[in-house]
Amino acid sequence: MKSPRVLLCVRQNTLRWDGEPSSLCCSSCCVLRCFDDRAAAARVNQHAHGRGTRTSLVRHGDPRVRLIAAHRSPLTALFSARGLQQITRQQQSPATQRRMRQQVSSEPQGVAEDILHLSAWLARQPHLPPVDDLLLDRFLYNCKYSLSRCKSVLDMYYTVRTAVPEFFKHRDATEDSIRRSCEVTLAAALPRLTPAGHRVFVHRLLDADSRRFDLLAHSRRVFMLVDVLLHTEPVLGAVVVLDLHASTWAHVLRAPPPLLRRLAVCFQDSCPIAIKEIHFVNAPGFIRKFLDIIRPLLKKKLNERVHVHTGGLETVGKSLPLHMLPKEYGGEEKSLKELSDAWQLALERRRDWFKAEELKRVDESLRPGAAPERAQLFGVEGSFQRLAVD
User: Fold this and answer.
1) Residue-level pLDDT at 22
2) CA-to-CA distance for 209 and 26, rounded, in angstroms?
3) What's the whole-model pTM score?
4) Which end of the chain is less crowded, N or C, counting CB atoms within 10 A of the terminal residue's CB?
């Protein structure tokens, strides 16, 4: 007998139990996957009460209840701490929703089977930490339901966190180095998605004094932001914008190639959010020399997605409509400073979550087979090898 599902309809503001696919009443009706959890029952009841939703209260242990990992749900508020949904709202046009569905197609039953498969696979990987269903759902979605890619990214996601603690330890947004980074660089995910359904990350250098630029602190901050998004919403892909209007060659010299190599591996091989485009805007005259340094670190496909603009963000074109940009770029959103400050506050509020997350690392002594050496992951003396994972 199939377990009933929780159905949440945003349009009709209803929450109910059912097990038939035909019960989905419209495109705003979401299937909420379930697992038996005391917090799940409380959260469903709280959400129902807060929205005036028509449903009976549920109890821990009720076989109908299992939680809330909404497959392609537009309600980030259901999984986010209060206020975060205001800076990650998904304002999708019907055309954008159609394009996103075309790029990722999987039936709810197939998703559940894939998660069971991954759970069984994880049980045979004693070196990996426990991974809950919600995060597995995010990884599957972001990997377009490719089980092989999902396994590879999952393994690398935790492996690099152990191998490069400089990026993934001391993840406290109230730390002095992080706060100094906020004074020198702005970093934010824009509230609106692109027409293709991608999330846009904008980074802007503010200070021409290279002595104040700390790439390591900025990188830790960016990885924290990405982790919050990963646990908040399904992300089909990312568009990365680097505004270099205050950059100098001295800033480049503070980014040694070994550090850039480790960054490249972390973003390309261990992050489930695929980078669809990289735009350098307000590019300085030395941008070509800088690209000569980083292109060997990028995979061929990503190299083809790098674009250079001598003008501002408003010159990027159709992939980033003007209305979705911060107001200093001629858009309708809040300023990038306001958005960056909002994200910094979101990171600070998750201080305890990040502290707990730091405990979820790989135990290489338990890995089946030989543990990868750091040189295997990141290369030595200019070589660039990658770990292959089943």
Assistant:
1) 39
2) 54
3) 0.73
4) N
